[in-house]
Design goal:
By secondary structure, the protein is an alpha/beta fold. It has helices spanning 10-16, 42-50, 64-77, 99-110, 125-134, 150-159, 181-190, 203-206, 241-255, 261-271, 274-293, 312-318, and strands spanning 92-96, 116-120, 141-145, 163-169, 194-198, 216-219, 234-238. The longest helix is centred in the last third of the chain and has 20 residues, at 274-293.
Length: 327
């Protein structure tokens, strides 16, 4: 979207951001179902491969449909978020074939043998297995504590100088536990740790971790961003544009966890209705949670919108609504 037409609303960003005018005037970015791209000359090909000239080469390295999805996620995650100079925060997003592919890029792209991750004890099962069954084989270990108690996080960091990354999932899948992003991001920065946040359950419509100074935001795009159960995907967004464009992009490409144009197209269409879907999701979740909490056959309801939830006030602090998930 040209700068002369600034996008001022969340849904406008969701609909229009990332779209480049098509040569045939199609109002939707086409599905670029092509493995490879041609060059006008061998010299141009050399410039593309060297990075001297921008352009597409091979769809594992990049694809126009995928690019629109990546830029749309970046725009939504930074909507209304400013950098330290007061300007619009810029981040780079890389779309992956799955959430687990994105998490693998995040960890392997930033950590080496001997490094450790500090995280909260309530995590998505796939990430838990990655931390416990795969990364130890690469010499990367994980320390798990209850990060809702900030002192436990402080003590763990002080006790082990090998901790290099603070990984946060809030709200967590499936317990709906919530940790304090502002305080934990501040703690991470005080100790020069990379801070990564799984924002899948909140979505950028309800929560924007980048405003707290985190380094990475992750999504399983399979869920709310796609919204229709039509494609698996994952995204990794980072504030260090140079690092994302070099080291993280290189690891992503070599691991081969790239998305494809069809799944990216479906994701783009899904994100266009994110705001209206989240509004209805959240309304329904609140109604269902309230009903279940009063039901005689239900012992406990985990929903951040209920004052009975132990993380109710933390969620109120950092989310615009308690969200759409309950258990």
């Amino acid at each position: 979207m040209p700068d002369k037409f600034p996008l001022t609303g969340f849904s406008s960003v969701a609909i229009h951001s990332g779209h480049e005018p098509d040569a045939n005037y199609a109002h939707l970015t086409p599905i670029y179902a092509s493995s490879t791209y041609t060059f006008d000359s061998a010299e141009q090909g050399m410039r593309r491969f060297s990075g001297e000239e921008k352009g597409y080469i091979y769809s594992r390295w990049g694809n126009p449909t995928i690019t629109e999805a990546e830029e749309k996620i970046s725009a939504l995650e930074t909507f209304g978020v400013t950098d330290k100079n007061g300007g619009q925060l810029k981040v780079k997003t890389i779309l992956h074939a799955s959430g687990m592919a994105a998490l693998t890029t995040l960890t392997i792209g930033n950590l080496k043998a001997g490094d450790k991750i500090l995280t909260h004890f309530s995590l998505y099962g796939g990430m838990q297995e990655l931390l416990e069954k795969v990364l130890p084989g690469l010499g990367i270990e994980t320390i798990i504590v209850d990060l809702r108690d900030l002192d436990k996080g402080k003590d763990a960091i002080k006790a082990d100088k090998k901790i290099k990354m603070l990984y946060l999932e809030t709200p967590a899948n499936p317990t709906i536990q919530c940790v304090d992003l502002e305080e934990l991001a501040k703690l991470g920065k005080e100790h020069n740790l990379l801070v990564a946040v799984d924002n899948t359950f909140a979505t950028p419509y309800l929560q924007q971790p980048f405003k707290y100074g985190v380094d990475y935001v992750f999504h399983s795009t399979t869920k709310f961003l796609n919204g229709h159960g039509s494609a698996i995907g994952g995204s990794l967004s980072g504030v260090d544009i140079d690092h994302m464009g070099k080291r993280i992009t290189k690891v992503h490409r070599l691991l081969g966890g790239n998305s494809n144009s069809f799944d990216a197209f479906l994701l783009v269409q899904g994100m266009k209705t994110l705001e209206v879907r989240m509004e209805r999701h959240c309304h329904n979740a609140m109604e269902v949670a309230g009903f279940l909490e009063q039901h005689a056959s239900v012992k406990k309801v985990n929903y951040l919108g209920l004052p009975s939830h132990p993380d109710y006030y933390t969620a109120t602090k950092q989310m615009t609504h308690p969200g759409a998930m309950l258990s």
